[in-house]
Amino acid sequence: MSTTVSGKSGTWRNWAGNVTARPVREVTPASVEELSAAVRKAADDGLKVKAVGTGHSFTAAAATDGVLIRPQLLTGIRGIDREAGTVTVEAGTPLKRLNVALAREGLSLTNMGDIMEQTVSGATSTGTHGTGRDSASIAAQIKGLELVTADGSVLVCSEKENPDVFAAARIGIGALGIVTAITFSVEPVFLLTAREEPMTFDQVTADFDELFTENEHFEFYWFPHTGNCNTKRNNRSAGPEKPVGPVGGWIEDEFLSNGVFQVANLLGRAVPATIPTIAKISSRALSARTYTDIPYKVFTSPRRVRFVEMEYAVPREALVETLRELKSMVDRSSLRVSFPVEVRTAPADDITLSTASGRDTAYIAVHMFKGTPYQAYFTAAERIFTAHEGRPHWGKVHTRDAEYFAEVYPRFGEFTALRDRLDPDRRFGNDYLRRVLGS
Predict the structure, then answer these.
(1) Is the Cβ–Cβ distance between 179 and 428 less than 8 Å?
(2) What is the pLDDT of residue 8?
(3) Rounded mean pLDDT of 67-76?
(4) CA gap 266, 296 in Å, rounded
(5) Angstrom distance (rounded) from CA 343 to CA 82
(6) Does residue 410 have a cis bond before it (omega within 30 degrees)?
(7) pTM of the prediction?
(8) Cβ atoms of 133 and 160 closer than 8 Å
(9) What is the CA radius of gyration of the chain?
(10) Taking each helix axis from N to C terminus, what angle separates 261-270 and 275-285, rounded to the nearest 10 degrees?
(11) Whole-number Å distance between alpha carbons of 148 and 41
């Protein structure tokens, strides 16, 4: 047995430092059999069980005072099926390792989020997404998954096998079982040309429909206290490869987006009155640039400045109105916001509790620098988002509960009924799931 079990496991903290938990014990299973045994033992001991990835969620979705499962030994590619265009990967594999391994095999995911530190199961279970006109979240690219359920048995699901579980478990928030392997749809590696350029808030909002329609992947950042945005369009390209040069890349991604940005945020936290001036400088610091590279090098970038985030999915047709309301709220208030607001899109999908379930979606994400009081800003933003039937990201800060979700998710009852069947004793429950799914 190579399972490591520490009796006194100490305190677990998430990436942002806003969630802590003190599990009774931690288990690091080296196989699906060991994971099943750990779930059965937890049941014998009357303990709850939660698996935790890299802790990139801002919610307490993975927190437990019972048994904490760490999946870092459940990593690597199980198999590639080139004919079917799929790859099966162990649940604890970091997205970064998956992306690099796929590129070596001449393959790629179709779309991805903007960071790749998370485990594949953590990212998909909370609904992590990038931006796309036609291609959706990482979970929407799942073709099959393997799940250890509350009695320790292993359930394999796909569109053909246990389709009701497959419909829900792709974004299961850890409520239906512990994901042990995921089969993703992949395609031959391709090139993307990214075009980044500044644009005014008024221009982006006036031309949003056009920018969305004309680009495979469009996103933008609005800098509060300014009328400035930075836009990014990613489209497939015949090449040639023209990666960001090491110097240019360092200046933009490391110096401006991480180093200088960190210093600016520290200054803003110490002296909030400086934030509007800093925002004006920041919003003009990033110049236009175009580069062409393989997908993960275009979609993802390093994020070293720590923050707390709230993100809501609103119907795509409500985006511009919602954003204008957010801007006028910030302009009217005494809030000082040093982080840009990020806007992305996704097409409707068929996953029960996906934020894009059954509707074309736009995402608005608000951030605050770690250590800065964020409640006033997030509360005011959330009021605007919920007025537009917004659905919060399962892994980001929000105050919604099961009663609210039953209204904004037409298939909410389908998910909770499945949970009643798969986990009647709430072996995988915790305070967060009790709030968002009901008891």
Answers:
(1) no
(2) 46
(3) 95
(4) 30
(5) 34
(6) no
(7) 0.93
(8) no
(9) 21
(10) 170
(11) 13
| Token output for 312 | 């809501």
The pLDDT of residue 252: 64
Nearest to 154 by CA among 143, 165, 164: 165
Say what angle helices 319-332 and 375-387 make with each other, to 10 degrees: 150
Residue with tokens 């990613």: 234
Closest CA to 66 of 103, 21, 16: 21
- The contacts found for 2-7 with CB under 8 angstroms, 24 or more apart, are 2/30, 2/34, 2/73, 3/27, 3/28, 3/29, 3/30, 3/34, 3/38, 4/28
- The half-sphere exposure of 140 on its side-chain side, counting CA atoms within 13 A, is 25
Place of tokens 């236009």: 288
- What's the distance, CA 287 to chain centroid? 27
Record the tokens describing residue 263, joined without a space.
């210093």
Pair of tokens at residue 65: 């005072």
How does DSSP assign 162-231, residue by residue?
Answer: SHHHHHHHTT-TTSS-EEEEEEEE-EE--EEEEEEEEEEHHHHHHTHHHHHHH-SEEEEEE-TTSSEEEE
Residue 261: its pLDDT value, please? 73
Residue range 172-183, pLDDT digits in tens: 999 999 999 999
